[in-house]
């Protein structure tokens, strides 16, 4: 099944954008947003939430980013929350995560000026 760029952009927002995210909200947010490994109900190993608005993240694709291989890297650091899986054999909706707050530049893949994939950097 081929998704168009708008679908991938919507999925990116659902998986990675949350301006109000905190380290103790990983379990609830990942469960409520139905974030799993692709096409399965297995728990995703890690998921990163960017504490920013959609428009600010989108601006990385325009003038607030620089080329980084196949990705675009933000010029400014972002506050992020990295949720790491604690129960390795877990299945959605029983995934349990540990959250860590970090501040770092982020890398995203842009298509037609929209962020569609998040990549961990450094």
Automatic annotation (TrEMBL):
GO terms for cellular component: extracellular region. This is Ribonuclease A-domain domain-containing protein. The keyword Lipid metabolism does not apply. SMART domains: RNAse_Pc. Belongs to the pancreatic ribonuclease family. The keyword Repeat does not apply. InterPro entries: RNaseA, RNaseA-like_dom_sf, RNaseA_AS, RNaseA_domain. GO terms for molecular function: endonuclease activity; hydrolase activity; nucleic acid binding; RNA nuclease activity. Residues 5-122 form the Ribonuclease A-domain domain. GO terms for biological process: angiogenesis; defense response to Gram-negative bacterium; defense response to Gram-positive bacterium.
